[in-house]
């Protein structure tokens, strides 16, 4: 049996997404710019993007046109181990696969609707004939459940773009329907990058104990995600020391996200408008990616483990109540026993801050609602990380092979280059201070967690 016949036979039994993967792996007439080719330039001369926790949609070349198939459908999605939901996405995932092409390409994109309601796809930021813009009721009739529509246009620009429905957006975006659409410049880049990452920022109202996002929520979201994953399930971005790294960020959530990279001054180098002229690049440590915007940042990678996260501190947390009374500084002694009579297992917390939360949930003595992540998670080489949501790491190593995207583990710091304890005397070093401390002299400072069980004198 010839390969083509075999594939056609296979196609009769496989769902479209599996089929396209089979075709991509066969290397015949199909082109995959995903996991298999990342780190190497394609025959079209560009460095394929790498979508952490995601993938790139294979295409088929037909009469000089790049053909893609998108399937809008309900999926089972895991945000991090311990939290799954029925979401909506494309071709089995949220975000949908990254579409990647080159300026000048003609693309033909088939969209099959397997959702229980009508949809459409809008190609966000892309120049195209008005009738291909994907706005239900305005530029096209809706794609009804079971129908397939075709979009076709020629790419006349480059840049970091998106796709998402323009039908019942409030619901369909809240459920996870979105993807990135990367267009590479036709003539290559004068200052090429070595690693090119694509990240979609989103938020989810997945209430504790539930399994479908709530589309009605406007502000108090439970999960803040990069490519629909939350820390610690977001892949680390890896690079070799000295490589030029680009991170393309796009935001289809309901909030703006000031995205911050530790250890570098990055340049903001592009957006939906393509890679900006060099004189328009600007050095920053934090860049706001507004709702509906895309921003590209670039930096030369210095060795180490560097946090990369949204700077809205609630966006680096997982589910929590937002209508709590403030427990900071409230003496809760005796309260725990009282409440335990009504609510067995209740634990009083928050008197000294919320950092103890992870110890309680990790220790298993404060089980949360089912299918719900703890507020803060992650274990690093120095203990609890205490983060969640839009937080991951840029891991840069001297000995990483080009194109190797595997997680290298934790950084081994050069001898003598790690911050360390020098004293346990709160008056150490007689620091200059203004006014008197609010803590009464007689009151003891809280004992650090790590020696709570070993540092008492009697
Ligand atoms: Cu944010």
Structural topology:
Blueprint: H1 3-11, H2 16-26, E1 30-31, E2 59-62, E3 65-80, E4 83-90, E5 99-102, E6 106-113, E7 122-124, E8 148-154, E9 159-164, H3 169-174, E10 179-184, E11 195-204, E12 223-226, E13 237-240, E14 244-251, E15 257-261, E16 266-271, E17 274-275, E18 282-284, E19 286-289, E20 294-300, E21 304-310, H4 335-342, H5 357-362, E22 377-380, E23 383-387, E24 391-397
Parallel strand pairs: 3-6, 5-10, 11-14, 13-24
Antiparallel strand pairs: 1-2, 2-3, 3-4, 6-8, 7-9, 9-10, 11-12, 14-20, 15-19, 15-21, 16-17, 16-18, 16-20, 21-24, 22-23
The structure holds copper (II) ion.
Copper (II) ion is lined by residues 224, 255, 257, 310, 312, 315, 390.
What structural keywords apply?
Immunoglobulin-like, mainly beta, 31% strand, disordered C terminus, binds copper (II) ion, 458 residues, 6-stranded mixed sheet
Describe this structure in words.
The radius of gyration is 25 Å and the shape is globular. The chain contains five helices and 24 strands. The longest helix is centred in the first third of the chain and has 11 residues. The strands form five sheets. Strands 11, 12, 14, 16, 17, 18 and 20 form a seven-stranded mixed sheet that branches. 39% of the residues are buried. The protein is mainly beta. Copper (II) ion binds next to loops. The site of copper (II) ion has 7 residues, from loops.
Uncertain ranges: 1-38, 451-458
CATH class of the domain at 44-192: Mainly Beta
Range of helix content? under 10%
Which percent band covers the strand fraction?
Answer: 25-35%
Helical/strand content category: mainly beta
The CATH architecture designation of the domain at 44-192 is Sandwich
Shape: globular
């Amino acid at each position: 049996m010839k390969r083509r016949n075999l594939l056609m036979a296979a196609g009769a039994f496989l769902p479209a997404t599996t089929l396209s993967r089979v075709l991509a792996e066969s290397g015949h007439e199909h082109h995959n710019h995903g996991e298999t080719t990342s780190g190497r330039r394609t025959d079209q001369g560009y460095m394929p993007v790498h979508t952490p926790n995601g993938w790139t949609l294979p295409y088929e070349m037909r009469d000089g046109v790049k053909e893609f198939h998108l399937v809008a459908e309900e999926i089972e999605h895991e945000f991090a181990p311990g939290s799954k939901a029925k979401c909506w996405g494309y071709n089995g995932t949220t975000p949908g696969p990254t579409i990647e092409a080159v300026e000048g390409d003609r693309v033909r994109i088939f969209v099959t609707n397997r959702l229980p309601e009508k949809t459409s796809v809008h190609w966000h930021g892309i120049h195209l004939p008005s009738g291909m813009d994907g706005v239900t009721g305005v530029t096209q009739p809706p794609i009804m459940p079971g129908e397939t529509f075709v979009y076709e246009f020629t790419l006349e620009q480059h840049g970091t773009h998106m796709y998402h429905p323009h039908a019942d957006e409030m619901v369909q975006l809240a459920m996870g329907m979105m993807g990135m659409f990367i267009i590479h410049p036709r003539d290559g880049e004068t200052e090429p990058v070595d690693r090119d990452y694509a990240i979609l920022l989103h938020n989810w109202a997945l209430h504790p104990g539930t399994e479908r996002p709530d589309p009605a929520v406007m502000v108090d979201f439970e999960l803040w995600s990069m490519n629909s994953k939350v820390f610690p399930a977001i892949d680390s971005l890896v690079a070799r020391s000295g490589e030029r790294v680009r991170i393309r960020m796009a935001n289809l959530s309901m909030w703006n996200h000031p995205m911050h990279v530790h250890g570098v001054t990055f340049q903001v180098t592009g957006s939906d408008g393509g890679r900006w002229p060099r004189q328009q690049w600007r050095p920053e440590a934090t860049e706001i990616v507004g709702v509906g915007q895309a921003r590209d940042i670039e930096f030369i990678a210095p060795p180490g483990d560097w946090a990369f996260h949204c700077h809205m501190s609630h966006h680096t947390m997982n589910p929590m109540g937002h209508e709590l009374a403030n427990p900071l500084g409230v003496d809760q002694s005796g309260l725990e026993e009282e409440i335990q009579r009504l609510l067995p297992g209740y634990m009083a917390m928050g008197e000294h801050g919320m950092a103890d939360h992870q110890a309680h949930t990790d220790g298993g003595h404060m089980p949360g609602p089912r299918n719900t992540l703890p507020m803060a998670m992650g274990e690093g080489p120095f203990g609890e990380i205490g983060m969640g949501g839009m937080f991951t790491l840029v891991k840069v190593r001297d000995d990483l092979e080009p194109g190797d995207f595997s997680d290298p583990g934790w950084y081994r710091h050069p001898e003598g280059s790690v911050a360390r304890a020098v004293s346990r005397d709160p008056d150490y070093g007689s620091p200059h201070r203004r006014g008197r401390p609010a803590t009464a002299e007689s009151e003891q400072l809280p004992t650090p967690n790590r020696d709570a069980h070993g540092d008492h004198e009697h």
